[in-house]
Amino acid sequence: MPTNDVKHLLFESIDEIGKLYRSKEVSPVEVTAATLERLHELEPQLNAFVTVLDDQAMAKAKAAEALFAKGTEAGRLVGIPVSIKDIFTTKGIRTSLGSRILKDHVPDTDAFVYTALKEAGAVIIGKNNMLEFAYGSVHPDYGQCNNPWNVNRTSGGSSTGSASSVAAGIGFASIGTDTGGSIRVPASFCGIVGLKPTYGTVPSQGLFPLSQSLDHIGPLTRTVRDNAIVLEQISSLVFDYETVFSGNIQGVKVGVIRQLMDTVTNPEVIALTTAAIDKLRDLGADVREVDIPGIESIESSALVVVLAEASAVHRHWYDSREADYNPATYANLKAGFGITAVAYLEALETKRRFTAQVDEALKQVDVLVSPTMAYPATEKDPSFEDGNIDVSRRTIPFNYSGHPALSVSSGNTPSENLPVGLQIIGRYHDEAAVYRVADAFQQATGGYKIPPI
């Protein structure tokens, strides 16, 4: 089948592509070739990849094609093009972390998630661009990753290329990391689904750490159901698809975190989030307001942990490689070395107390909701140094507490047609409840919307 005849399939679901493979209406080779062609067409505009694995991807696609040709039973990710953030080690393949310091780094081991994807039969097409060391700023050597809804806007960080590529139909999923919102923020900006699972759900072997206490690994996809398919392959979780994705949320208790709503000033974000909450109510959810004392300011305590732990990771380079860091990244590291042991231990104690507060709130409801971000995609990557920009106020609380949190698009702004995210938070290890609510909402609001690029 000619590549152009396959391109319309690049925005289909993982299960739909799998059905086409099994019926032999289309092959993994055709879908992979079309994916790579779209990648190369859009890459100058999006800047979503650091490394593209054309030959490796096509070889894997041919192996998958042979399986389907024989009628061999195959898993859901066999032959499905995906990508991974360039923060995971890949044996024999450069792992740069968007940095000058590691620009030529070629590991001799594979990260757990990379191995899991390969063993699941996924076709890994490349490694995604990201903010330098996942620490809030892009290195000028790599450049900003742009948003497929408007290439003059950022795709958000730090899992920049992961969100941009998936939103643009370059692969059906990507694996990102989230320490303060780095999966959910770009998912919100790009109008896709991004999940930060419960802390520790996905093994971190082969992940270069930013903050070991707050780092999470999770999937970015276009649909909630695709997200669950990928999470099953990189974790020990298994979902009952008939129950989780029934579309029925009648009686599900949804708690609106009022403090995270009241601090939003963008009227379009307020309107879209309010409409999303009303939709959940229309679907039968029992919606109520929930109070989590101090959540609107917990970001400052969480950042103490991030700053201190990140500086410990970078201590071997800090004195000798200043010129190789983005100045903003180096400023963060400098600030981290100024954190006292007492302040760090106090922040960990605050973390324990705050986690208990979130647990207490989730005794009253099944899930919590809030806007993911206070605004749609900005022109440049928002950073911690910009004191007037609300960067992670709504996302980092749940890195701090470790609860699962997902961003799904609540719609696009009328003024500029930019996506806005709705964040859904669940109890520890209850990703199923988060998925159930997010999927019902996504299905009721028309599913994934294709960007104009």
Helix-strand blueprint:
Blueprint: H1 3-6, H2 14-22, H3 28-46, E1 49-52, H4 54-70, E2 81-85, H5 112-119, E3 123-128, E4 146-147, E5 150-154, H6 160-167, E6 173-178, H7 184-190, E7 193-196, E8 216-221, H8 224-234, H9 241-244, E9 253-257, H10 258-262, H11 267-282, E10 286-290, H12 299-313, H13 315-318, H14 327-337, H15 341-364, E11 367-371, H16 396-401, E12 405-412, E13 419-426, H17 431-444
Parallel strand pairs: 2-3, 2-6, 9-10, 9-11
Antiparallel strand pairs: 1-3, 4-5, 6-8, 7-8, 7-12, 11-13, 12-13
What this model shows, in words?
- With 453 residues, the chain is α/β, with parallel strands linked by helices.
- The protein has a single domain (3-300, 338-444), classed as Amidase signature (AS) enzymes (Alpha-Beta Complex).
- Helices cover 40% and strands 15% of the residues.
- It is built from 17 helices and 13 strands.
- The strands form two sheets. An eleven-stranded mixed beta sheet has the order 1-3-2-6-8-7-12-13-11-9-10, with helices on both faces. A two-stranded antiparallel sheet has the order 4-5.
- Helix 12 packs across helix 14 and helix 12 (299-313) packs across helix 15.
- The protein starts with a helix and ends in a 9-residue tail after the last helix.
- 57% of the residues are buried.
- The mean pLDDT is 97.
- Pfam families: Amidase.
- InterPro entries: Amidase, Amidase_dom, AS_sf.
